[in-house]
Design goal:
One of its GO terms (biological process) is spermidine biosynthetic process. The chain is of the alpha/beta class and 290 residues long. It contains 10 helices and 13 strands. Strands 9-8-7-10-11-13-12 form a 7-stranded mixed beta sheet. Helix 1 packs antiparallel against helix 8.
Length: 290
């Protein structure tokens, strides 16, 4: 197996160097490199890290790890699903590792989850090496389509109660998932009373992306809110998510009870409420009072 250039042996140990910017690099000590392949879209690597267990790496960037994936996957899933009073049909764009789908299936009202992932080889690798994430993709309520998410939503209207955009960073094939035409298509794919959510990056390293995402959703949806969670393996640790809602779900406090009923490792009802309390510097950057 040929190791990528960003994985090198130093002083008898194997290290993965993730380049975040010209000024920041993250080093991961590895136990092993389990899988390397190049798909038509990206380089896919599965490694076993010393601290966080197995990890999915795309084009040299760590996407998720067995050690802390539950934080991100629970937060991007449970908040919109609990806010919706009766989610039946859910669309997940991206998220080929399966972690978001796993969380969606915890809601008995959900009759169907459509997963649209551009790269089939990501899902195949995760099924083999990260079954704790991908293990629910064979559930009969799940339909997986390997195609471009933008092209998919162009062909659907008024079909989904909740749409979760679990994209990678806004570079390469994921860049279009942060642009206005895509968000407009997502809105049109929602049923009346629908909710969408997207990961809106780190306010430390991608503040312009967060600001632009909130601005675009403000223009399209009557109700928008940003919330956050600490994700240890993501640069800056503080990660944001932004909702676009076709109604005001916060008028009904019942959503808090719906979270309390679920089996989770990170999210609690109290934490979910608190996640909407943004740090002062984020509120200032977004120009909001929440």
């Amino acid at each position: 197996m040929n190791r990528p250039e960003y994985i090198q042996e130093r002083d008898g140990a194997l290290w993965l160097t993730e380049v975040e910017s010209d000024h920041l690099k993250l080093n991961w000590r590895l136990k092993d490199v389990l899988h390397v392949e190049r798909s038509p879209f990206q380089e896919i690597v599965i490694v076993d890290t010393e601290t966080f267990g197995r990890a999915l790496v795309l084009d040299g960037v760590v996407q998720t790890t067995a050690g802390d994936e539950f934080i991100y996957n629970e937060m991007i899933s449970h908040i919109p699903l609990a806010l919706h009073p009766n989610p039946k049909r859910v669309l997940v764009i991206g998220g080929g590792d399966g972690g978001v789908v796993r969380e969606c299936l915890k809601y008995p009202s959900v009759e169907r989850v459509d997963l649209v992932e551009i790269d089939e080889r990501v899902t195949r690798a995760c099924k083999m090496y990260l079954p704790e994430l991908a293990g629910k993709l064979d559930d009969p309520r799940v339909r997986t389509r390997f195609e471009d998410g933008v092209q998919y939503v162009k062909g659907v209207r008024n079909q989904y109660d909740v749409i979760i955009v679990d994209s990678s960073d806004p570079i390469g094939p994921a860049a279009v998932l942060f642009e206005e035409p895509f968000y407009r298509l997502v809105k049109e794919a929602l049923r009346p009373g629908g909710i969408m959510v997207c990961q809106s990056e780190s306010p430390f390293f991608y503040l312009p992306v967060l600001q632009n995402t909130r601005r675009l959703l403000n223009e399209l949806f009557p109700v928008t809110r940003t919330y956050w969670a600490p994700v240890p393996t993501y640069p800056g640790a503080l990660w944001t998510f932004t909702l676009g809602c076709l109604f005001d779900p916060f008028e009904d406090s019942g959503w808090i009870c719906r979270i309390r009923e679920k089996s989770t490792r990170y999210v609690t009802a109290e934490l979910a409420v608190g996640s909407f309390v943004l740090p002062a510097f984020v509120r200032g950057a977004l120009g909001v009072a929440e």
